[in-house]
From TrEMBL:
Organism: Gossypium arboreum (Tree cotton)
Pfam assignment, any one: zf-Sec23_Sec24
Highest taxon of the lineage: Eukaryota
Name of this chain's protein: Zinc finger Sec23/Sec24-type domain-containing protein
Coiled coil: none
PANTHER family, per the entry: SEC24-RELATED PROTEIN (PTHR13803), SECRETORY 24CD, ISOFORM C (PTHR13803:SF4)
Annotated ranges, domain Zinc finger Sec23/Sec24-type: 15-49
InterPro entries: SEC23_SEC24_subfamily, Znf_Sec23_Sec24, Znf_Sec23_Sec24_sf
Length: 68
């Protein structure tokens, strides 16, 4: 029996990464400021999420900083 794994296409920019340590976004990063920023769990740097890449806690996409 084959299982189908979902693949996420992040486009040309690739997955979200910390600009300081280059760590990939992961479940251990803390999201702050209404999920518009995150604190890297590897180096502690605070990063802004680009609006088009922000994802709500429930998995719903956001655009322009507002819930869709």
């Amino acid at each position: 029996m084959e299982t189908c794994e979902e693949v996420v296409d992040f486009g040309e920019s690739g997955p979200v990464r910390c600009s300081r340590c280059k760590g990939y976004i992961n479940p251990f990063m803390k999201f702050i400021d209404q999920e518009r920023k995150f604190i890297c769990n590897l180096c502690g740097d605070r990063e802004d999420l680009v609006d088009s890449r922000a994802v709500g806690v429930d998995g719903g996409m956001k655009s322009g900083g507002e819930d869709s």
